[in-house]
């Protein structure tokens, strides 16, 4: 069986589509590797073994780069939960007043949740951005950004 460049493009697009169904960031690199292999085969026709080797190498290199440079730094600092949260910015979804609690939404989960109850020294209206300045038990203390 001979693979031509468009076979690799179909495989790459199929793997990327599957990645969207299972957001694991695993199939994405093999899909991009297939697209790169398809481009290389289109430019320089090669045998099946060379194509498979090129796909394996490009996929593993991209996965290795992703693991080295884009892994979550919070996961590598056990015991520093409070320090990892300080300075994180989120969107206030329920207004907070000096005497009442509000709620904040983070773009990425913070300490396992994307929504947290908040307190503040002053009023912050919903829709404003706020920065975490302290952790008080199960409540985050924030200031307006």
TrEMBL record:
Keyword Transmembrane helix in record: yes
Tree of life domain: Bacteria
Protein name: Uncharacterized protein
Record keywords, A-Z: Membrane, Transmembrane, Transmembrane helix
TM spans (from-to): 7-30, 42-67
Species of the source: Sulfuritortus calidifontis
GO annotation, cellular component aspect: plasma membrane
């Amino acid at each position: 069986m001979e693979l031509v460049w468009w076979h690799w493009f179909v495989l790459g697009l199929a793997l990327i589509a599957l990645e969207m169904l299972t957001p694991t960031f695993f199939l994405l690199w093999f899909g991009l590797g297939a697209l790169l292999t398809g481009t290389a085969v289109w430019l320089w026709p090669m045998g099946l073994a060379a194509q498979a080797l090129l796909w394996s190498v490009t996929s593993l290199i991209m996965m290795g780069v992703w693991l080295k440079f884009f892994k979550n730094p919070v996961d590598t600092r056990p015991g520093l939960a409070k320090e990892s949260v300080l300075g994180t910015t989120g969107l206030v979804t329920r207004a907070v007043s000096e005497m009442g609690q509000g709620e904040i939404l983070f773009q990425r989960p913070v300490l396992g949740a994307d929504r947290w109850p908040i307190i503040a020294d002053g009023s912050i209206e919903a829709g404003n951005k706020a920065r975490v300045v302290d952790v008080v038990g199960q409540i985050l203390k924030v200031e307006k950004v």
